Amino acid sequence: MQSDSLFVAGAETPPVARAIITTAMSPYCPGLTLEVCPSPQADSLRKVIIARVQRGDTRAMIETDLERDFGVEIRSMPKTEGFGLVGWAVPGLVVLTGAFFVTRWLRRQVKRSARP
């Protein structure tokens, strides 16, 4: 079965390897995930990840090694701990604050239009 990406996720690809490959950013193709990067180096890295999963390495072990070797830029999303938690919390707080002010403004507009 072929997907829209360059990486063909077949029966021989363990689900854990597929999860890592589809969420990791490629160190060889800026702005692309490892799944869709067409470089030969990315293909080699995909094969290494699959081999490590088949040998019994956990997702956490592989992701830790990838971060060590390529830096935190390999993560497509910030961690949900430490400073990475700010990356998750700030957008939510901005949306809530915006909703609060929009609600206040709308209520004032309704009150103004209701005055005779």
What does this entry look like structurally?
The protein is built from four helices and no strands. The longest helix has 31 residues. The N terminus is likely disordered. α1 runs antiparallel to α2. The chain is elongated, with a radius of gyration of 22 Å. With 116 residues, it is mainly alpha-helical. The N and C termini lie far apart (67 Å).
Low-confidence stretches: 1-6
Shape: elongated
Compute the CA-based radius of gyration.
22 Å
Mind describing the biggest β-sheet? none
Strand content: under 5%
Q: What is the count of helical runs?
A: 4
How helical, in percent, are the residues? Answer: 55-70%
- What is the ordering of alpha helices and beta strands? HHHH
Structural class: mainly alpha
* SS elements, strand count: 0
Mean pLDDT, as a whole number?
A: 84
Distance between the termini: 67 Å
Structural key phrases:
mainly alpha; 0% strand; 59% helix; 116 residues; disordered N terminus
Task: Please give a quick description of this structure.
The chain is an all-alpha fold. The chain is built from four helices and no strands. It has helices at residues 15-23, 40-55, 59-70, 84-114.
Itemize the secondary structure elements and their pairings.
Blueprint: H1 15-23, H2 40-55, H3 59-70, H4 84-114
Helix pairs in contact: 1-2
